[in-house]
Here is the input.
Amino acid sequence: MNRKLFIMSLVMASAILGGACKKKTSENDNLAHNPFMKEWDTPYGVPPFDQIKTTDYLPAIEEGIRQQKENIQAICDNSEEPTFANTIIPYEYSGELLTKVASVFMNLAECMNSPEMEALSDTIFPMLTRHGDDIMLNAQLFDRIKTVYNNRDKENLNDEQKRLLEVIYKDFERGGANVPADKQARFREINEKLSALTLKFGNNVLGATNGYALFVDNENDLKGLTESQLAAAKEAADGMEKAKGKYAFTVHVPSMEPFLQNCQNRELRKELWTAYSTRCLNGEYSNSKIINDIVNLRLEKAQILGFDNYANYVLDDCMAKNADNVYNLLMKVWEPALAKAKEEAALYQKMMNKDGIAGALQPYDWRYYAERLRKEKYDLDDEAIRPYLALDSARKGLFYVCERLYGLTFKENTEIPVYHKDVKAFEVIDHNEVIAVVYMDFFPRESKRSGAWMTNFREQYYDRDGENHIPVVSLVFNFTKPVGDKPSMLNIDETQTLFHEFGHALHSILSRCHYPTLSGTNVPRDFVEMPSQFMEHFAFEPEVLKVYAHHYKTGELIPDDLLKKIEAAATYGQGFINTELLAASLLDMDYHTVTASATFQQPDYENQQMAKIGLIPSIISRYRSPYFQHIFAGGYGAGYYSYTWAAVLDNDAYECFKEHGIFDPTTATSFRTNILERGNTADVHDLYLAFRGQEPSIEPLLKNRGLK
Here is the structure.
């Protein structure tokens, strides 16, 4: 997922996390030695992580807020007639220090968390929310912006300037600029409460995820697991004081997924699955009440802004435009996906019956029998693939694709500061010029939340002097760590995740936008996943696999018979994959299309909504409500559908590449110049049409997922 969306949702105003200009430093002597107050003498101006202390953030945030308030007041005090030059430009480039501090703090709060960082978040996030409201609800500022907007045809603006003006004006409208005076106090209160609640939701998920482990004493209870899986579990246990000599399995995906796929012990599968699927439902880390509060506060906010529900408020700024269009698309894919999932379930039920196990197929059985059938039907074993997908090899394959498509090369630079010893930093080179820095953070740790995401320490933009500031991109994963002399080895899903997140990165790396608000991934959320999902298509192209898929020990190229098996099984399990994804998307929409305050009893409400759409009991939503971070802590509320909306576009786009050759230079150049370089400098639908030359079709999506 794209972390920029989360950050933007927290700070309420795009300008807070975008822009740069020279400003006066504070007279506060306590800031004299704060690293955020200095020019960073590091390669490419990246953060000097080793110099930043936890105690540096709060004073620098406070000073950044003070400076931006001063900038905003200067705009308001300008006695000249409002123009693009004297109002929009200084607003766009306000907040340099706040941008600098907030980007580092928010990124590290997600992947280098600690009790101290959590306590700081409790203070800083509400501060940023209040500051965002101060800007959005500043009547003087909005009057000037509105005047410029109304007079836009009188100014000689280029297309990108017109787009910037339009986006900023709409941001203010959506941020509450037109909220009546008698409702502004409540509007501010709602925003502040939502900021605190979403933060608490995410911290609860992190705490519950880190707080559980399944310990197994006897290796005989772990039949079916491979030697490498057992070794990883033994190593994990050895790192826990009370578990030495045992085997430890957690609800982090790299540990849980292989266990559910391979462990023959059904009761242990049930135990681990239950711990995973009931996280944050009750107890110390319960998110049940928080869900109620978030949904009802979002509804109230949307209605203050003139929308009947929160979904239509969110979608008004997206390609989908309204909830009806979202439901229409989701159901077009849901019906064939559910039919496919029922076929899969029937096959697994038969296998379970043959094993002499009474009763119905359960969610903790699905992955086990799906993996068994894949081995039987396609002679394709996940563990047979992994040795050819060592992390370093897969990364080289990824870089190969980027070079073939866009002429980019990558060079690791160990002189670039990193925030953790496991992080690698790369220079991205285009025609002998470094155009970006990319951090890659691969492995799980307790201080890092689960999942994978892309974000920025710095956006690409041109400052007011015309100097291009190259992006500093961060990619965070949770892949299995190396064990002993064995490298980190990926499975098919993890390899696709690597390519997916790098697709986001390319959207930022190749950005050629003048204004940070429009740069890179700052696009409507139902378009932002398009470049990332597009990149997934290349991961298992035979031509690409033959470049990078070498056995980690022997160096042997992946054999043709294994390639054929991978290709034959390409649409295997798509009923399950699409059904759990769509179930989560529909659940998200159900929460956010309510039009009156309600109580959502967990898990009853979710179960009722899933029953309405006919979800079979052996599958649950990809994320159950109490740990559905995307929508309750990650900026994707009423937006999880975007993975499917964007999938229509990415499959249609890849169809164009296949028609002309997947590395056709003309097609790749068109994709780069019309989509990746353009950010949000034009309506993204128009950008897509400029690349494709026709409206996108849903047919390639249904075909590629085996649903047609």
Remarks:
- Confidence is low (pLDDT under 50) at residues 1-27.
- The two ends are 27 Å apart (CA to CA).
- Residues 68 and 613 are 48 Å apart (CA to CA).
